[in-house]
Amino acid sequence: MSANLLGNAVSFDPNAIRTIANEIAAKHAADVDAQSRFPQETVDALKRAGFMSALVPKELGGAGCSMRELANFCATLAQACASSAMVLAMHYSQLACLVRHGAESPFFRRYLQDLVTHQYLLASMTSEVGTFGDTRSSICAVERNNGRFKLNKDATTGSYCAYADAILVTCRRSADAPASDQILVLVRKTDCELTQTTSWDTLGMRGTCSPGFRLESSGPEEQIVPGSFADSSAQSMVPYSHILWASLWYGIGADAVGRAAAFVRADARKKPGTVPPMATRLAQVSTELQAVRHNWLSLADEFDAINGQPDGLQELLSIGWALKTNNLKINVSEAVPQIVHHALQIIGIMGYKNDSRFSLGRQYRDALSGALMISNERIAAKNASMLLVFKDE
Length: 393
Hints:
Shape: globular
Helix content: 40-55%
Largest sheet: 4 strands, antiparallel
Strand content: 5-15%
Order of helices and strands: HHHHHEEEEEEEHHHHHHH
Number of strands: 7
Radius of gyration: 21 Å
Structural class: alpha+beta
Distance between the termini: 41 Å
Oligomer: single chain
């Protein structure tokens, strides 16, 4: 990573992600899961290595990483700790909104330079009590007065908000705006008071620490992201979320299949010259895993190609693109739990035991979260309505 415009050099080695995964995330993953605690050690390591600003353009001091590169970071990290990978993926989806929709603002250009220097962690607050899971509508509204904003929100889920340096919050544009006329507001830690309203004792993804919060905030009006959340969501938040989530879910599956392969190889060494009965099942699940990998890699590459086109942002607003990202999310989130299940069948009781080196309990529970994060039922219903008018040319 080159020096940023403030003259502060930040070291960045994309290959460091594997070291962080193997030596830090994997070491603490079981405790993060057991204690339902934030993976602070891994996040600190990611900050030291400059990964928080990997998406920031080079002219602002960042690494300017592509979607494919970011997805590979998440996939690698997820093979060690899915909660850590989810925090990184969510951070990137929020950062993308600032990079792609706020970079023309002098305030956000300075903020992105500061993020490179200080490696801020960005959290998300898009849910709200009373909207019943619809992140594209808000009850709360921002108030503007004398160059400042005031924003209060009662969120059902606040993604690792208590540990973040800033939160991107959705709300109505004004008190008289309809529920769907939303904007994004950057709320820094020093701008707000958070009151936790619910617990976070979940089946999986326990380290993401995302209970409900009541947010009370105020700050300079320049922290409101330019444009509408509808555009930020379609052009940035959704594609980054769905592609990066898919890559980390793949990472969970890759970890499970890797453990199954190690188990089968150990069995083979007991009887040299013979092929263990479970080797055929291993070959089958490896095929399933490869299909998932090709799925998210293909869309990551397509996203990068679209980004390089003059009218790329408009293409990302199309029904065809929305269907592709929605289908990726549904497909991978439903395929990976099956892959982990098949790996468990290969390993047997040693995969079922929590104290075994072949254990798949955490991987199984983490994989089940995918279909529930923005419910697949809700996404399928949106796809159904779009397909009524979409003509694939």
